Amino acid sequence: MSTVSHEFVSRLDLEIEELSLISAHPSPAVTRVLFSDEDLKARTWLTGLAETSGFSTRTDAVGNLFIRWEGSDSSLAPVATGSHTDAIPNAGKYDGVVGVLGGLESMRMLKESGFEPRRSIELIMFTAEEPTRFGIGCLGSRMMAGTTSATAARNLRDPEGKGLEDLRKAAGCVGELDSVMLANGVYSAFVELHIEQGPILEAEGIDIGVVEKIAAPAAFRIRLTGQGGHAGAVLMPGRRDALLAAAEIALVVEKAALESGSPDTVGTTGVLNVKPGAINSIPCDVLMEVDFRDTDLITREQALKQIRREGEAICSRRQIGFEWTFINEDPPAICDPGLVDLALKVAAEAGCSTRRMISRAYHDSLFMARLAPVTMIFIPCHKGYSHRPDEFSSSAAIRKGVEVLAGTLRSLAS
Ligand code: HGY
Ligand code: MN
Ligand code: MN
Hints:
Layout: H1 11-20, E1 30-32, H2 37-52, E2 56-59, E3 65-69, E4 79-83, E5 87-91, H3 97-112, E6 121-125, H4 139-145, H5 150-154, H6 164-170, E7 189-195, H7 200-204, E8 208-214, E9 216-225, H8 242-258, E10 266-275, E11 285-294, H9 297-317, E12 321-329, E13 333-334, H10 337-349, E14 354-359, H11 365-368, E15 374-379, H12 395-413
Parallel strand pairs: 4-6, 4-7, 7-15, 8-14
Antiparallel strand pairs: 1-5, 2-3, 3-6, 8-13, 8-15, 9-11, 9-12, 10-11
Residues 129-130, 137, 361-362 line the site of (2S)-amino(hydroxy)ethanoic acid (HGY).
């Protein structure tokens, strides 16, 4: 007999469920890759929801969706909030979505309470926070901040060789990519609500985390080229096996992270493509994609230099071609102390327990920090699970996050 939860099911709960079903994979998995049919359906659904909630919407040339509540004083820079609804393959239903639908719920709550903002409030659904399609994360917010130029964006190709230009136009995005970049000060503040994607809040029984620093992500590709050949005919001493060089380098990535001297250094070889990919043919062409982060830039840079140095040594010993290409190397973001204090104060006044935190995941806030003062409001998620179908955050936890976001936006827009 199913135990029916007697927890009040809010419209937000229903909307999170509804959005989670717009997915390339069956529930509980969520897959919504940039400009896929599911992504386009989700965008249409969200636009409709925002407009029936009484807000205006617009989309920029790369697909960032802006949901706007007009304030009384248009001479003032708006306050912004937002996150993403795209999802890596077999992800969960809360990553990003809590910040977009929770942001919409915050605005509706304020509107229904009779609040009238002086500063306009904009909720942004950012294009491609996840790197799945083009290998680079936060494409929409990167371009808004000018970190990725329109030219560099035009050169992006997905694994099937499709370019951003074709895909965005097919998705109905109009205008030139040069128009995506915004000027500094375009927003007075940016506050993002997000699940923690870590175990701390739940383990410590804390309702709200307020982020002071967002870790610095780097990602790079290494292409390894060997000789290939027949798995039976080529004896071991004569081989130049590209996959074995990749295997040694993957272990160097792990070693560099473990030996960096900082617990915040993390390295992941998340993609490994082996050609020709036949059981009886020696790998001759291998592509590795590595995600490497730390909250401290110097520590990260030193570890990356070590990986490159040792990788080249492995490849010269094995007579394997070594080609290193950076995908991105971003500095960490320091959140605005005033915003951090405001969010902590609002949370405490709402009766929430709080703590200051570092975000080890990157977010669109990392790039919005180049346009405006930012902070993030974290809520607990079960065992810190994320980027997995069993990602979970309770209605009660989400509601507290929405209340704190609403109170923070109210204060910033007054
Ligand atoms: O990878 C990240 O940190 C983010 O969840 N895209
Ligand atoms: Mn994510
Ligand atoms: Mn996210």
